[in-house]
From TrEMBL:
Protein family per UniProt: Belongs to the GreA/GreB family.
Ranges for domain Transcription elongation factor GreA/GreB C-terminal: 83-156
GO MF, any single term: translation elongation factor activity
HAMAP family the UniProt entry points to: GreA_GreB
Biological process annotations from GO: DNA-templated transcription elongation; regulation of DNA-templated transcription elongation
Protein name per Swiss-Prot or TrEMBL: Transcription elongation factor GreA
Pfam families for this protein: GreA_GreB, GreA_GreB_N
Keyword vocabulary terms for this entry: DNA-binding, Elongation factor, Protein biosynthesis, Transcription, Transcription regulation
Domain Transcription elongation factor GreA/GreB N-terminal: 5-74
SUPFAM superfamilies listed in its UniProt record: FKBP-like, GreA transcript cleavage protein, N-terminal domain
Function recorded in the entry: Necessary for efficient RNA polymerase transcription elongation past template-encoded arresting sites. The arresting sites in DNA have the property of trapping a certain fraction of elongating RNA polymerases that pass through, resulting in locked ternary complexes. Cleavage of the nascent transcript by cleavage factors such as GreA or GreB allows the resumption of elongation from the new 3'terminus. GreA releases sequences of 2 to 3 nucleotides.
């Protein structure tokens, strides 16, 4: 089974979601199914069918989370150092065309969240950045044409 890199924070979020699904969501949907059954004819019972769909989603997500957690290889960025970009690095970049600065942390695929400035290790930007150092320029394919960035800072926190 192939391990997938993940930060400790990412693993904790997955474990929290799994715990919430198992301890709160699953029992609640079981109660909803039981209540809907008590209303009689199941063939025309919309509440029953909705609860069963929700149960199916929850069970699928539980299996997915258990699989992700079992294959997680936790990498602690605070134990890493150096100027070369690798998994877990927080990278400050400047767009060479617009001079707009941005900061991203390179994380596992299942913990990426662009709103939180966390990009997946498998994203085009992260792939282009891996192995680069401060002062290097990277070209990243984008829908509107290639973008070129300069690496300003590499931090492991």
């Amino acid at each position: 089974m192939q391990k997938s890199p993940m930060t400790a924070q990412g693993l904790k979020r997955l474990e929290d979601e799994l715990r919430q699904l198992k301890s709160e969501e699953r029992p609640a949907v079981i109660r909803a199914i039981a209540e809907a059954r008590s209303h009689g004819d199941l063939s025309e019972n919309a509440e029953y069918h909705a609860a069963r769909e929700r149960q199916s989603f929850i069970e699928g997500r539980v299996l997915e989370l258990e699989s992700l957690i079992s294959t997680a290889e936790v990498i602690d960025p605070t134990t890493l150092s150096g100027s070369r970009i690798q998994f877990g690095a927080t990278v400050e970049l400047v767009d060479e065309e617009t001079d707009k600065e941005s900061t991203y942390q390179i994380v596992g695929a299942h913990e990426a969240d662009i709103k939180q400035h966390r990009i997946s290790i498998s994203s085009p930007l992260a792939k282009a950045l891996i192995g680069k150092e401060i002062g290097d320029s990277v070209s990243v394919p984008a829908p509107g044409g290639d973008r070129t960035y300069e690496v300003l800072k590499v931090i492991y926190k």
